[in-house]
Amino acid sequence: MTESNEIIQNDLSLHLSIEAACFCVQRHMLGGIVTSRTNSGGRDSKPATLALVAQHSGVSPQTVSNALNSPDLLAPETLARVRKSIEKLDYRPNQAARLLRTKTSRLIGFEMHSGAFGLSGLAMEEFLHALSESARKAGYSVLLFGAPTNREDEIENYVELLHERSVDAFILTNTRRGDRRPGLLRKRGIPFVAFGRWSARGAEDWVDVDGAHGTAAAVDHLVGLGHRKIAFLGWPKGSGVGDDREQGWRRAMLRHRLSVRGLRVSALDDADAAREAVEGLFSTRVTAVVAASDTLALGCYQALRLLGLAPGRDVAVIGFDDSATSKLVSPDLSSVRQPLQEAGHSCVRLLLARVEEPQRDPEQILLQPELIVRESATGVSLAVSVGVMRRCSSSAVGWAG
User: What is the pTM assigned to this prediction?
Assistant: First the structure.
């Protein structure tokens, strides 16, 4: 095995290991409520009761109930003391009894879309952690459920969940034009907020990350390093998130009066597909690539090494998501980092505000990502550009023969 092929295999094995780990995490979480924990007392320990929590924290049972259902009624120090006892005793309210008493489950539904463009793997895990932590502090739990393979069955999923689990509210992802979920939830009076935009119009509550800002920042950085022929490796058109990231690249290129003709290629969010999609670019004097995800950027790495080129040294590469992969490949991958913790907290804040005040005006939050510059984003020189052209030509002759 040649050195370049060995590097490719190592990168790919690393990527597959990370994806497998993420899949296991998501499979585990899909089994129930994100914020559930095992009892610290062991399998044979008796579950804590509300009376025991009241005794432990030195308050009445009604005060414990208020801490769970109406925390705003308590003084901050009292609430903190009760929550500390709840945490220490690992007290879990009886959901069935609560539902009968209050007509609420304090469950927030979140649909998991496997293979959807946008959040995936470790990025999704970071977002869900922030989501569940914010919900827990407000006395809610997050219920994960899988999206059906057939989009036509999606609405039935929501109807069944509302009927069987009495979910109080939803956080929607994978938003798109013609989405039927908002109409269903509005009709039933169920609060919801979207992580992602349906359109520029502010008809609903949503939180989103300005992907266009991130890819534009990547182009601006590369132009500052001397790059003029900067390609975009994205997803197929119509993904929403991917289209937003492409627009940022396109507008920045035009702002710098640089051509975009023939510089956009697309692939599914898969390293092998990305490698095949991007291979033809490097015979056209492309010196830099901005990718819509770190997974696509990894495919770009593989394509370069198959051509005998080095990412960073010969062609600059910038990904999107700043996943764990970006810091484990060689050279370190420059990437656009999304403020996922802030996004998760903001989604819960908007949702709870909607629960408390159903008639409030819609609110939208657009968060800005940050470009993290590492070894893969380097400057360009005429000598390097010519070298890239020569090596691509030599490789092409070798394949033809």
Answer: 0.72
